Amino acid sequence: MMLTIRRLYLYAMSGVMLAVLASGLRLLLTALLDALGLDGDPALGGGSTRETLSLAGALVGVGLPVWAIHWWLVRRVMLGGDADAEAERASPIRAAYLSFVLAVTLAFVAAAAIDLVRSLAQGLLDLRAMYGSAGDPAGSIATILVAGAAWSSHAWVRRDDLAAGPLRDGAIRWPRLYRYAAQLITLVAMTSTVSGLANALADRIAAGGKLSADDYAGNDISSSLATMAVTGAIFLAHAVHALRLVAQPGWRGDSERASHMRVGYLVILIGAGLSATISNLGQAMQALLLLLLDPAGSSLPPGGLARAVIVPLVVLAPWLGAALHARYQLLGEAGRSPEPGRAAAGTRLDRFVRSLVGLGFGALAMAWLVGIALDVVAGSDRYALDPRTRAFDLASLLPNAVLGFALWAVTWARVTAGRVASPEAEASSGIRRAMLLTALGAGLAASVGSGAFILYRLFGSAMGVVGGPGVASDLARAFGIFVVAVGVALYHGLLVRDDVRARAHATTTVAAGISVDLPSGADPATTAPSWAERPLVLRTEPGVDPDTALAAARAALPPGAHLADARQPPTQ
């Protein structure tokens, strides 16, 4: 406890004083770069150079000695070379501190680099910023230098910790969390800017292709390019590092390949990539359907058919690439693993995440389509007043329903084939159970919510609390959600029941009864252990050799204890 409190104090003070010191150094470098002519926008000044230097000197004067003392106390333990040094190196608190500093400094470097690249792009393209400032090159460069130095020094410390020997538990999980969180966040930031960039380029092409200093599209392009370049570089660096760790021999490679966190990261990428792909592909199909349902084109979004189709296809490309790459890594690493059952688990994860994504899109779109059908049958004023609304709703929902159910049907056919080929193994899979319960829970939640809404509307109408022409449309959509949700919950609930029944017949009784050898003349009531002659049933899961399980159970018994084989007649 005392060591834990000491570590918490030292690392907390080191982090706070490091922030104070970094702030002072950034101000000093900014003032120096301003003096060299990199002053950027005068509106960002906020004070004279003397005031800036005074504040910077105060921050450095306070932060440097206090940080140095606390960090020296930490380093003194590490340089001891004894059990205390090893305990410090393997401490989860130390790993959490280093990971936190790496994450925070990386965020500052990324933000400053984006601002700097955007300023450079605007200068090269002869653009003036349209958002109130032209950036602060001096501040951006100073931030990159100071935060980059802090990141590099702590990454070096982390590398020394790893080079000294194997680490486990929190000492390895915190840095792994940083690495995969950095990849996921930068990937989302990079791919999200693709949409803005594609739309800005489409606007610029529609306007004749020339960038103007007073053009918002030109500045959107420069901002999107800067974000893509910086976040893409950070993502690529961390992704390459992760792949090298996976391929590395020794304890680090073994730990990374067996990491559940990495598997979870890959599964998230597959699910997010497929979701974005279906969503954007549905948008492209929506434009084509709108043209069929509304030949006049009045329902098409601004920019015409070409933009409505091309932009979503451009946006889905990086997401689809990320999903395919993550799937390749998941299946490949699982297939190469010597761990029993790892290959089958990887295949199940891939299939079930694809099934959930497809089912989610298909069921949600189908629920709304059923509601629309009921709304039309009821003669709702919603579509009578504006027929284009129905065309837009149908064009928005039909692609998602088709794409979602197509993905689910293709994937679920393989899941069903695996269930038929090996019913016991599939029924005993925790991954399958998690997927089925997830779908069951989502269906039950949606059915309960929509059912409650239906009753609320009916009771409200009967009591005169709510009413009007929108009640029929609300009830139609809620009933559509209720019907589809009940179907999803019922189907997956039946599958859970079948798996429970299959597992009940999947185990094999291989041992029953423990006997103990007692000394001659000993009283069994007082000498025998409390578990002696107590019935015991040892059951094996599907795929486990019963003889191996029985041998392992016998080896775990204390001397003098015997485990009878229930498959053999008792010896006389």
Describe the structure.
By secondary structure, the protein is mainly alpha-helical. It folds into three domains: 2-257, no CATH class; 349-504, no CATH class; 508-518 and 527-563, no CATH class. 76% of the residues lie in helices and 3% in strands. It is built from 18 helices and four strands. It has a two-stranded antiparallel sheet. It has a two-stranded antiparallel ribbon with strand order 2-4. Helix 4 packs parallel to helix 6 (170-206), helix 11 (342-377) runs antiparallel to helix 13 (387-421) and helix 15 (430-462) runs antiparallel to helix 16 (470-504). The longest helix has 37 residues, at 170-206. The radius of gyration is 32 Å and the shape is globular. The two termini are 59 Å apart. Mean pLDDT is 81; it is low at 40-46 and 507-518.
Rg of Cα set: 32 Å
Which structural class best describes the helix and strand composition? mainly alpha
Q: Estimate the strand proportion.
A: under 5%
Largest sheet: 2 strands, antiparallel
* Average of per-residue pLDDT values: 81
Total number of helical segments? 18
Strand order of the largest sheet: 1-3
Q: Can you write the helix and strand succession as a string?
A: HHHHHHHHHHHHHHHHEEHEHE
The tally of beta strands, per DSSP, is 4
Termini separation: 59 Å
Helix content: over 70%
Q: What is the assembly state of the chains in this entry?
A: single chain
What is the number of domains?
3
